[in-house]
Amino acid sequence: MCARRATRISYLSLSSGMKRREIVPVALADNGLRWHVRAFDRERARFGDFVLTRISKVQEIEGEVDERELLGADEQWARMVEMELAPHPNIKHPKAIEADYGMQDGVLRIKARAALAGYVLRRWNVDASPDHRLDPATHHLWLRNTPTLNGVESAAVAPGVYAGPGKEAVV
After folding, report:
1. Residues 100 and 45 in one domain
2. Is the pTM of this model over 0.85?
3. Which pLDDT score is estimated for 3?
């Protein structure tokens, strides 16, 4: 990362299995469960997250990298998202949740990078559905300002977010 170099890696993906990839690492991030390297993926021509434990056979690639492959070009990393977390509307005693999180006026405001926002919501078990349809027994918090996730790529992993045609919401 510091050397601003591309690397060739063997990566074990859930979707495609073991595959060689060329990436330009730009940052490290902890999603609460495991570490990821944020990198520009040359095959897909976009930034993505790669789980460190799934990377093997790393080889540095000689030569300069393009500016579009560096951290300054990663819009999802640069964008900060303010999320308003509230007790799930179907919780019987919301004051208990307010006390647990030290909420002010029934809301906890947190900021996260767009690239990480979905991971935060998943880690905290936040119901991110606009109609708060997930079970309040397992989702004590609800994302009150769901439109803040518009254009946030990592939102696809947040509980209750519609993942697209033919895909179920993450629960």
Report:
1. no
2. yes
3. 84
